[in-house]
Amino acid sequence: GSDQSGQQSSSNATKPYIPDYKLAFEHFCVHAASKTVLDELQRNLELSDENLEASRMTLHRFGNTSSSSIWYELAYLEAKEKVRSGDRIWQLAFGSGFKCNSAVWKS
């Protein structure tokens, strides 16, 4: 239904399509900006705790190192021997405003 302003109420709003990125990638290196950012990305992209382990550990150990955090995360995954031959890795970094970049690697 609509409210008094003619706006659609959230109960009838169409939920945006969000792909299941877990079908495309085995590993995620998400810029470790803050716990809140990681929590929201995990919730919205429906990622598991394991998917964000490298990001959370990087944030815990080094803090917000800006977009370079994705390289600490990749090193974490490699040190834990989680990356196997043929695995796909998505590195996702973002900044203020609308800046967002990503890289995809195949091991």
Automatic annotation (TrEMBL):
Known EC number: 2.3.1.199
GO biological process per UniProt: fatty acid biosynthetic process
Organism superkingdom: Eukaryota
Occurrences of domain Beta-ketoacyl-[acyl-carrier-protein] synthase III C-terminal (ranges): 26-106
Annotated GO MF terms: fatty acid elongase activity
Keyword Acyltransferase: yes
Recorded metabolic or biological pathway in which this protein acts: Lipid metabolism; fatty acid biosynthesis
Keywords linked to the UniProt accession: Acyltransferase, Transferase
Single GO cellular component term: membrane
Keyword Nucleus carried by entry: no
Record PANTHER family: 3-KETOACYL-COA SYNTHASE
Name of the featured protein: Very-long-chain 3-oxoacyl-CoA synthase
Organism field: Opuntia streptacantha (Prickly pear cactus)
